[in-house]
Design a protein that fits this description.
Structural class: alpha+beta
Number of helices: 7
Shape: globular
Radius of gyration: 27 Å
Distance between the termini: 106 Å
CATH topology of the largest domain: Endonuclease, Chain A
Mean pLDDT: 82
Largest sheet: 8 strands, mixed
CATH architecture of the largest domain: 2-Layer Sandwich
Strand content: 15-25%
CATH superfamily of the largest domain: Endonuclease Chain A
Number of domains: 2
CATH class of the largest domain: Alpha Beta
């Protein structure tokens, strides 16, 4: 009886070891296939020159305006703007400077806010040759977004509650997110910008 039990124990142990070995081999094959697929995908995807990162700033404690201007000053190809209100002269100057050095700058803004605010910088942008469109389809075109160099290896998206105004930095409690190196995110924001652009009206200068 003891001999039969011993043989049974040995058989069960051998079966367990065999099953574990098979499972280990299968896992190794799956890992190799996954690694190969990932390497292939990485080879096909454009290589980003900017590490993916998210920066968060909280005015008035943090100098979000400085960080925003720094992004604009380092744009290489394109700046797409969606503004609820744009009254900051510093931001307007940075956009005009980008346009003058050959960057494609295009601006969407809320029509009502522009009409009601004498400090709107949109006419200055338009007079400098920057295309500007007004959104009047919505109760509020409440986006505060800038998409910089979408489609490039180093895209940047700026978003949050931060209006493009002097008050946003100095008087208000705001937040600004700067999303770097996220090509898919930048692409989605750029496509949304284009969708809003289709329904917008070009700014008419007096």
């Amino acid at each position: 009886m003891i001999g039969r039990q011993h043989r049974l124990w040995r058989w069960l142990t051998a079966a367990s070891l065999l099953a574990a070995s098979a499972a280990s081999a299968a896992s190794a094959v799956a890992a190799a296939e996954t690694s190969g697929s990932a390497a292939h995908a990485c080879a096909e995807a454009p290589q980003s020159t900017t590490p993916a990162a998210i920066e968060v700033y909280f005015p008035p404690w943090d100098d979000a305006e400085h960080r925003l201007l720094d992004v604009l000053n380092h744009a290489r190809h394109q700046i797409l703007v969606q503004a609820f209100l744009l009254t900051s002269r510093d931001i307007a100057v940075a956009l005009i400077a980008a346009h003058q050095r050959g960057i494609e700058v295009r601006v969407l803004a809320d029509a009502k806010q522009h009409a009601e605010n004498p400090l709107s910088q949109l006419p200055s942008l338009a007079r400098a040759g920057i295309p500007v469109w007004l959104e009047d389809r919505y109760r509020n075109a409440h986006n505060k977004v800038m998409i910089v160099d979408a489609g490039s290896p180093a895209p940047v998206v700026l978003t949050g509650s931060y209006n493009f105004t002097r008050s946003a930095q100095r008087l208000n409690a705001e937040n600004l997110l700067i999303i770097r190196g996220q090509a898919a995110v930048a692409g989605q924001y750029a496509e949304n910008w284009k969708r809003h652009r289709i329904a917008a009206t070009p700014l008419a200068l007096p």
